[in-house]
Structure formats: structure tokens, C-alpha cells
Amino acid sequence: MTPNTPVGRPLRPQGKLLQEDARRHHRSLLLQQLFREGPASRADLARASGLTRVTVSDLVGEMLSEGFVTELGAPAESRVGKPPTLVGLAADSHHIIALDLSETDRMSGAVVNLAGTVLSRHEVHVDGAEGEQAVQLVLQLAAELMEMTERPVLGMGVGSPGVVDTSGTVIDAPNLAWSDTPLAARLAEVFDVPVFVANDANAAVLGEHTFGESGDGGLMVIRVGTGVGAGLVLGGSLLHGHLGASGEIGHVVVDPDGERCACSRTGCLETVLSAPRLRRRTAEPGVDVPAALAEVGTRLGEVLAPIVAALNLHEIVLSGPAELLGGPLLDAADRTIRERTMPVSSAGLTVRSSKLGDDVVVVGAAVLVLAGELGVS
User: How big is the CA angle at 113 (ends 355 and 125), to the nearest 5 degrees?
Assistant: First the structure.
């Protein structure tokens, strides 16, 4: 899967493909099994994947030579006879460069291994940079991160604000003054590695889906940073929408008499829920902070209730500044959703904060590469 996959394409391999795709597909099946379930013998992999032992042995040998898997010896408790040799994902054989461009005042990134572990971090300050100047900051951040690893780089993943198309071009990101900016192409040209760019909320939902202990039902992540967006995974598939603009709930009008939004409309959800607006509101003299946050949570719940009713989601996850989004805001959003939907729609719903904290976008950006290059998520 790339961030540029048609709507409904599964995140991980399912079923048989045409013969010309079979070898890559079969490799993905084995890697997915090791990624999700941990070390296994070749016989176990054959049973789990439905492939023949000859095919599994051939593919494991290939992946051993490439360094993606490693032999771990026999299990601690082996039956009588020759013990099987376990193979496992070689998490540090390759590294991923993951970028998060969603913050108000900085662009951050990390070196991440194949198990989703953040190994090192780096950031650059935005200082009001827009347009080409902002692109140059992304290139600088990526270059400095590349210098922080000596392992082969599997690819580069980017979570960017705005609408991102199937080629990794940022169609529109008002807060960075980007319009039709070919971010993936620019990065690939400079660094000569596979590059995957997605909306930051889509990256966040992939991170939460893969590493955040989410359930099997519909998952929606609300990403609150410079702007506000949402990512959705439904039935194991990342939802992109007709023109790649699914999840743009930050630009739903909640107050026609409200403040001007970066998108040029008035009173969008982003004008009350974005991190800068929340910080400004809660810093006003004499403001009742819990009440102010609860009011914003109610607005958010009003926007989310029809989505919950339509999709019968299992989890809604808020990702962003924990001191602002937790407590009164989250509680009010949860309460409002339940007040405005039928019990059958919200009975099994969980509304919570992200378990990945500040790493949700960079980890999700790493998932873009894992899925695109190895077929695992």
C-alpha cells in the first residue's frame, strides 16, 4: 500500500494476485506474519500462509540474504528430533526516515527501525517559513536525519498538512502556503530512496492502527496541530476519498460568525480546535479554562456525531497536545457524540487520546514505508 492507493485497497496483502505479482505478494505474506506474530519456523510460516514449504524456504533464503529476516536458532522447548530453526524480522537491518510536518513552529523527524521503534530524533524550526522556503526546510531536515543512520534506508515517509494526491504532491496546505507542491518527487530526486507522502492525519491513523493497540473496528484519528484533520481506517483499509480529501473535518463550518480560517472560509472547526487557537483561548485573562475546553469539545462532538452514526466507528482517537485535548475537551466530545446518536451507533465506541503521544505521525510515516516497500502494516 502506498498513501496513494485507491479507496478500499487493503493495508496488507489479502488473497491471491496475478502470477507476475505472486513473488512479491508471497514475500509480503511471510513478512506480515513475522511482523504481527513474531518469530516462526519455516514450517509454521508455510501453514500460516498456505504456501508450500519449498516456496517458503526459497523466499526465506532470499530475505536472509537481503537482511530483512534473521535466523534465531531453535525454540526453547523443542520436541524430540531435529529442532526447527526460527526466523524473525531483522528490525535493525534497515532504517526508515520519517518526517512530521504538522506542528505549528517546527518540523520534526526520526530514524525508525522496521519494528516501529524510534531510534533518534531531530527537528528544525519553521520560523514562519512558507512556500519554497518551507520545502527547503524539509530537505534540510531529511538530510540531517539521513546522516544519523549508517544502516540501509528502506525509504522515507512524510506526514504533511493539507490534501496530498496519489503521487505525493501536496495539492493544498494553506498553513505552509503550498499549492501543487511535488514533495515526494523533490525528496526522491535528492535522496534517491522511495518516498511516501500522506496527509498527517492519515499518517497518524496508520501509526495508531499498526502500533497503537487499536481494535479491529473502524478507527478515526483526529490530528490537532497547526490545523485539524482526520484519518480513517475502515475494514482494514485507509480511506482516501474521491479526490484524496477524506478527513478534512477541520474545514467544516461550526460558527458562521466566527474567525477567518486559513482556507479563506469563516468559522471552520480549525478556528477553534487547532493547537494555536486553543493555546490562545486558554491564555486569555480570566478565562475559565475547563469550561472553554469543554465548549470546544462540544463543537467537536457535534461534527463527529454524524460520522459515528454513518460509519458505526469503534474508536475515535485524539492526537495532539495532551494538556489541551485530554480531560474536559475529550469528555465533552465523548458526551456530545453519545447524546446525538442512537445507542446502537455509540454503544461500543471508545473515545480516547493517542497511546503514541507525540510520535504518532512519525511512526505512521514509517508505516507508509513499511506498507509500500514490504507490504506489512
Answer: 70
CA 302 – CA 353 distance, rounded (Å): 18
Mean pLDDT to the nearest integer, 206-229 = 86
Position 8 confidence tier, pLDDT thresholds 50, 70, 90: very low
**Pairing state of beta strands 315-319 and 350-353?**
parallel
Q: Which pLDDT does position 80 carry in this prediction?
A: 58
Are 351 and 137 in contact by the 8 Å Cβ rule? The answer is no
Does the pLDDT value for residue 119 go beyond 60? yes
SS3 content of the chain, % helix, strand, coil (to 5): 40, 25, 35
Distance, in Å, from the CA atom of 87 to the CA atom of 50, rounded to the nearest integer, reads 17
Grid cell 524456504 — which residue?
A: 57
Domains detected in the chain: 19-89 (1.10.10.10), 95-204+360-374 (3.30.420.40), 214-354 (3.30.420.40)
